[in-house]
Amino acid sequence: MPQEVLAQAASEMLDWPDTTGRRCGMGVMEMSHRGKEFMSICAHAESTLRSLLAIPEHFKILFMQGGGLAENAIVPMNLSALRAQPGHRGQTDFVLTGSWSQKSFLEAQRYSETHLAASAQACGFTDIPDPACWQIRPGASYVHICSNETIHGVEFHALPDLKSLGSDAALVVDFSSQVASRPMDWGHVGLAFGGAQKNLGPAGLTVVVVREDLLGHALAICPSAFNYQTVAANGSMYNTPPTYAIYMAGLVFDWLQRQGGIAAMEAKNIAKSQALYQAIDTSGLYVNRVHTDCRSRMNVPFFLRDEALNEAFLTGASAAGLLQLKGHKSVGGMRASLYNAMSLTGVQSLVAYMQDFEQRHA
Ligand SMILES: *Cc1c(COP(=O)(O)O)cnc(C)c1O
Question: pLDDT at position 15, please?
Answer without folding.
Answer: 96
